[in-house]
Every structure is written in C-alpha cells, then in structure tokens.
Design goal:
34% strand; four-stranded antiparallel sheet; Elongation Factor Tu (Ef-tu), domain 3; rod-shaped; 375 residues; six-stranded antiparallel β-barrel; conserved putative lor/sdh protein from methanococcus maripaludis s2 fold; alpha+beta
C-alpha cells in the first residue's frame, strides 16, 4: 500500500470521526432540549393548574341605598265643591285657572222652591207663636180660677200640657226656619280655602241637583303639594317621617325639588306588599302642576346586616351560596340574602363577617378546590 493510499484512509477515518462526533453532539443537544422542554412544560402545566381568585370580605351596614319611585302630584288640599241647594245656576264668577281666596264667591244658584218653603215656614212659625200665646193666656186664667176653686185640677193640668205642647211646636217651627235659612245660604257657592280652580263643570242655566253628587268646581291648593308613593316591603322599615327626598320631573330638566316624608301608613298592603308614604312638597313658585307625573328619589338609611358584593353569589339547585377561602381551600357556605342593593346584597344569615369570599367564582368550583389568592 502506498503512502498516498494510507493518507487517504487516515483522512477518511478522520472525517468519519468528526461526523460521528457531530452526530453525537446533535443527539445530545436534542435530548437535552427535550428534557428541558419537558420540565418547562411540566412547570407551566402545574402553574396553569393553579386557580387564582380575587376575594373580598363582608362589610357591616354598607352605605345605604336610594329607591326611585313613581308618583303623581296632588294639591295639599283638593276639594270638589258642590251645592246643597237645588235650582238653576244663576251665574258663575270664577273659571279654571283662577286663584281665589277663602270665602270668595264662585257661583250663585237660583232656587225659588227654597224661597217658597222659607215663606211657608215663617208663616207656620207665626201660627205656632199665636197658638203659644193663646195657650199661655188660657193657662194663666185657669191658674187664677183654680185658686178660687171654680175649676178642677185636671182641667188646669190639661191647660198646662197644651201650653207645653205649644212651646214645643214653636221651637220646631223656629228650627225649620233656621234650616231653610241655612239651605238658602248654600245658594252662594264660596271657596272654603285659598287655591286654584282646576275644573268647572257647570254653566249658566244648568239644573243643579243637590243629591246628584256632581261637583260644580274642583278647588286645589297648589302652593303646597303632596305625593303618594308605595315603598316595597323590603325597604318599608327604613322609611321614617321627616326624611328628605328629591323629586324630579322629566319636563323640568336640571331642577330638583326637595320634599319631606310627612307620614306613612305604618302597614303593609297585603295585595301589593307595599307601604304607602305621603311626601309634602313646597311649591310657592308654582313650577310644579298638580297631577304631573314625577320621580321620587327616597334615600334609605343603611341597615345593620352584613353586605357582600353581588358577584360573590353562587346560585345553584342547593340555594344561594358563597365560596369562602380557608387555608388555600374552598368551602362552599349556604347563606340567606336580604335586600338586593344593586352591586351588593345584604346577608341575613350564614356568615360570621371574617370570611374571604371568592369574587366571580367559576361554575365548576366545588368544596376542597385549591386556590391561590391573586393580589
């Protein structure tokens, strides 16, 4: 074998060794990378398996709430004005929108029947007065004759009885005259208080029937108003007389009127499960009109119950629950809720107040799940 052949073989061996070394290095690198990737994947999988949660603690009382209710404005005093005297409307002096003072004339009624009845009653009274005078003079004569013994005691007693009856007849006649005088005074319809005429239901010549019940006018006191609202049972116990409320009307943008709770019905209506509340409202400037639709914002004081975020609730077939975190583990706790305050709810029973409650718990959460509290 020549020197050139030996040199070529040595070169070939060297190249083969280099190739084998390179292949060994590549294989080692591949194995190392696979091992490293496996560890990284395993660490990522373990980290992904952890359940990170945010928690919140219950609060006592909270900040209260504001209940917005719909209502209609009414005059502080509103009265339908009718007449007790029947007849024909002679004239009216005030129309709708008129501001009237107490005692001001609104209308007059012409009733000739009452005039005739009053004339007849006065004549009957004169007859009763004459009968009384005759009975008294007769009784006086019998008193004198009794002293001389010319009449019996029975006859004197009869004259005394006739005199007493004549007195009663005169009293009855006087009462009838006064009744008709009072009835005649009702022909003048006057305002019982200061207010605004909001309705007129009659015109000149209309027949007025005292027993029909149809009012001639509607008189409303508009300088002070009242609103009736129905507060739900869940908030009724927080409403007290004297509370301030804010009243708004959609047509009067930017204006807020302050009212005050005047009184409550102090009872729950069994049909609606609400309590009626009356709110007094000053309206000296006349900006608000009786009958208008308004919104009443009724601020309620905070209750003593614990309050938790609404997104901590778990609602399942078992009832309402929360997920409390204890030593990194989940414990599902059944609770009894009270009022819904929007972003929070009251808890009546089931919590001590020291729990850490999971916010937005997943549907799959169960007792014993390991969790990590996220900062």
């Amino acid at each position: 074998m020549t020197d050139e052949s030996r040199t070529a073989i040595r070169r070939a061996k060297l190249v083969a060794i280099v190739i084998l070394v390179l292949l060994a290095l590549g294989a080692g690198r591949t194995v190392f990378m696979r091992h490293t990737n496996a560890k990284t994947l395993e660490a990522n999988a373990a980290d992904s398996a952890k359940l990170y949660v945010q928690v919140a603690a219950p609060k006592i009382g909270g900040t209260g709430e504001t209940v917005v209710l719909a209502g209609s404005l009414q005059g502080a005093t509103q009265a339908p004005l009718s007449s007790r005297a029947s007849g024909y409307l002679k004239r009216w002096t005030k129309d709708i929108g008129s501001v009237v003072e107490k005692g001001e004339l609104l209308a007059e009624i012409e009733s000739p029947e009452i005039d005739q009845q009053l004339t007849q009653a006065r004549a009957a009274r004169q007859q009763s007065a004459a009968s009384l005078a005759l009975a008294k003079s007769t009784m006086d004569r019998y008193e004198e004759l009794k002293k001389t013994g010319f009449v019996a005691q029975q006859s004197l007693d009869e004259r005394r009885g006739a005199y007493a009856q004549a007195q009663a007849n005169l009293a009855e006649a006087d009462a009838n005259v006064e009744r008709l005088k009072q009835l005649e005074s009702f022909r003048r319809v006057v305002a019982p208080f200061r207010g605004v005429i909001t309705r007129r239901n009659v015109d000149v010549g209309d027949l007025i029937d005292a027993g029909s019940g149809r009012p001639l006018f509607i008189l409303t006191q508009a300088d002070s108003l009242r609103v009736y609202v129905n507060v739900p049972q869940s908030s009724a116990h927080l409403v007290k007389a004297g509370q301030k409320v804010n009243i708004t009307q959609g047509e009067l943008r930017g204006r807020v009127f302050e009212g005050q709770v005047a009184r409550t019905s102090a009872a729950i209506d069994p049909n609606t499960r609400t309590m009626q509340v009356e709110i007094a409202l000053d309206n000296k400037d006349g900006a608000l009109l009786p009958g208008a639709y308004v919104q009443v914002a009724l601020p309620l004081t905070a209750a003593k119950e614990m309050v938790i975020p609404a997104n901590a609730l778990i609602i399942r077939a078992e009832g309402v629950q929360v997920a409390a975190v204890e030593a990194g583990k989940v414990r599902l706790q059944a609770i009894k809720v009270g009022r819904n305050l929007g972003t929070s709810v009251e808890v009546i029973d089931g919590l001590k107040g020291t729990e850490q409650l999971v916010l937005n718990p997943p549907d799959s959460i169960v007792n014993g799940d390991a969790v990590t509290i996220a900062k």
